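Worked example 3. Consider a protein that binds zinc ion.
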Amino acid sequence: MQGKTGDKCVSSGSYHCHQHTGNHKTFNQGDIFPKCDFGGAATHDTTWVEDAPPTT
Ligand SMILES: [Zn+2]
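Given these inputs, the predicted complex is written out as C-alpha cells:
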C-alpha cells in the first residue's frame, strides 16, 4: 500500500518516501504517516510507498 503524510497507516511494514527511495521507515497499523525528514531539518509532505516484500 501507500499513504500520504497525515493519512493513517493500515498495513504495518517498511516504507520509503517516493521522492527519496533511500529513506526507509517502519510504520505500524494505526500510525499517522509523518513528513519525510530525509536530509536533516528539511521536511516535506510526501507519499510513503510500501517496500516490495523480499522475493527469496
Ligand atoms: Zn522525502
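Take a moment to read the result before moving on. Strands lie at 2-4, 13-17, 24-27, 47-50. The CA atoms of residues 35 and 41 lie 11 Å apart.
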